[in-house]
Structure formats: C-alpha cells, structure tokens
Input
Amino acid sequence: MKEKVVLAYSGGLDTSYCVKYLSEELGLEVYTALANTGGFTEAELKTVEKKAYALGAKEHVNLDVTEDYYEKCIRYMVFGNVLRNKTYPVSVSSERTFQALAIVNYAKKVGAQYIAHGSTGAGNDQVRFDLCFAGRCRISRVICHFCLDGHRCFCYA
Output
C-alpha cells in the first residue's frame, strides 16, 4: 500500500507540479485539498478539481473555511481597519493560517503520512504553512517545495 500525502492545492503551476512530483517521483498517493476562504467561484472550484484528477490525484476536496475565517478573523480586521503601511489589507497572511489548519484536519481524516504545499519561498506563505503544519500536525513529515535560483528542490521538516 502506498503512503499518503495531502497536498494543499490551488490548481496553479507550483501545486500542479507537486501533484506529478509527489506521485511519480516519490511514489506517494496524492490527496489534494483546496481550502477556500471565499476567493473561488463554483465554476473555478470545479475547474481546479478536474485539473487535480487529470494530474493523477487519488482524491480532491474543496474545504469551505469561509465562515470560520470570517467569524474568527476577517470581521475583526474590518472592524479594526487593519492595514499594512496604512494601505494594504493583511488578509492574505491571516488567510494562510486558516487554510493550513483545514489541510491538517483533512490530512488527519484520510490518515496521511505526509502533508505538502507548493509555496515557492518568494514570500512568507511557506513560513506560514510550515509553522502551522509543524505546530498542529502529528504527521511524520512535511514536504514543501521552493525555488532557489530557478532550481526545484524539496525539503523535509
């Protein structure tokens, strides 16, 4: 029986690459999960799902965390007019925490041995995912990929 990995999947280039790499190069059974905080239409979610299966995902789920994200975070940011540099809403950074927690819960549900994401290291998303995964996940390994000088590499934490 193959070991399972849950991949935080957006349908973009990096996470699509991860589906193929995790299944073909590492020999893992890939479960993709998109944690939706409200930024996707139903049509977009269907497109992402079709793409995940076309790339070889064993299972794909769309996890709706919109209400949880609003109730526990966004409404307080709106009430407080929380802005970075007085112009930019900091919703994306907080959004990653809710997405990561939903992915961890799904990984536990399917009994995954690994959890993965496709954050590229270009911003702070990789750190946000890694910290949430490491702090909340009792899964043996976290697989993340990132780009350094145009080369792909995987690190295991």
